[in-house]
LacI family transcriptional regulator (Lentzea aerocolonigenes), 342 residues
Amino acid sequence: MVRVRMADVAARAGVSTATVSMVLNGVNSTRISPQTQQRVREAAEAVGYKPNSVARSLRTQQTRMVGLISDTIASTPFAGRMLAGANDVAREQGHLVVLVDTERDAEAERQALHALNGQQVDAVIYACMWHRVVEVPPGLPEDAVLLDCAPAGGGRAAVVPDERAGGRVAVRELVAAGHRRIAFLDAEERFELVASRLRYEGYLEVLAEAGIEPDPALHVRAEPVAGGGRDAARRLLDLPERPTAMFCFNDRMAMGAYAAAHHCGLSVPRDLSIVGYDDQQLVAAELDPPLTTIALPHYEMGRWAMEVALGLRQADPEVPHLMPCPLIRRASVSPPPTQFGD
């Protein structure tokens, strides 16, 4: 098989090999007209020219690879949209993503960083499955970008969901529908979830702005799964004055709240309005009725992290970028019943 050379492209396009090199290697030169650049690209495609990636990396000092180290994100469909966002930007810029899933093993993480540094990848992204504060591992490059996590000591570009604002949006949706007895089904403190504190702060802020006195009995904690949500909701529905609405820490707890409501003979949303958080695939939209929820912006965070890693946008290393969490309005919210038992 005869290897097509850069000289073959130059001959077909009627330009020098230097011009072909600058065009195909993305060198910004005002001396080459857009028409000539297009002619070179068309000639390269016509003759089947494929750049030698090793030679190009030696010339440009770029490997066109980005390392993405994660904890359990790669094996978790729930957060797969982060990978999609990062990969889309990388592909648009002609880069390949090298993904390493460490399962939160410190030794696997150390080996991954050593291997990526040895390969001289152009950039590194350090990602987590859920929003948390992390100790930056030794060996992580200074210009690495943190995705869905924030460094304990600051000093790194990072992107996380705006959890507090998402909590405000969720509770405002319930207040706007006329609810005053609004419960918050929260995750147990033993899980040490950053999102739990921030979403609760958003809940309290909206109650304050609406002139609603928080009732400690309406803040209940449970394991952040469907069973935990069911048990927490049952406790709330057994109160002498039950809530007319529930804001749930996540969609799985909301699913449990649906089950508790049905067990008590209540209809969602006629008797009880429910708002979740996450917009989890195969959960939120599949409930009956479909769940109004707050979406975690996984795809947008993945894109942002890769854009910063590749120098396409700037980031403040001292303050994590807060990505908006939009409301996904479905059918689980309505005005409260005029009286209990209606």
Summary: The first strand starts at residue 65 and ends at 70. Residues 53-61 have pLDDT under 50 and may be disordered. The chain is about 40% helix and 20% strand. The longest helix spans residues 194-209.
